[in-house]
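Checklist before submission:
- one chain only
- standard amino acids only
- sequence pasted in full

Submission:
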Amino acid sequence: MSQAADCRTHALKWMREPSNCTRIVVIACGLDSNHIDLIHQGFSCFDNVALIHVDAVNTVPGQLAEVRVAKGDCCFVVLGELDERLLHGLSIGQPCVYPIASDGAAERSVIAAVEQVKSLARVSHSRHLEVIPDSGGSCL
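Returned file contents:
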């Protein structure tokens, strides 16, 4: 069984594809490429985190694409600002939203948001490990 999220075709880019162990889907919106890279690097050790970049400039009404994510303990986190119309269109329930500063504090707020998500990922990963024993190394 899967949970569908609708997004505008040109606005959506998976930076880290979801897998069967994905527990957190991070939606980054309204951020520049340096911040997206920083977020992507921040989650490099976590196999339970998927990352979507939503380009708010390229959202086109009426052009929908369906994105399937495994249903279950999956939690959605928004980094940045996501238009209410687009957020509603994602059909993801109540996501956690971490606003990112637009001034000189932007990098600090991205790092703080990444740390919050990493904490959530560690807890999620621990619960997942109780069910399925870890067969490989991890950098948690």
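Reviewer check: The radius of gyration is 15 Å.
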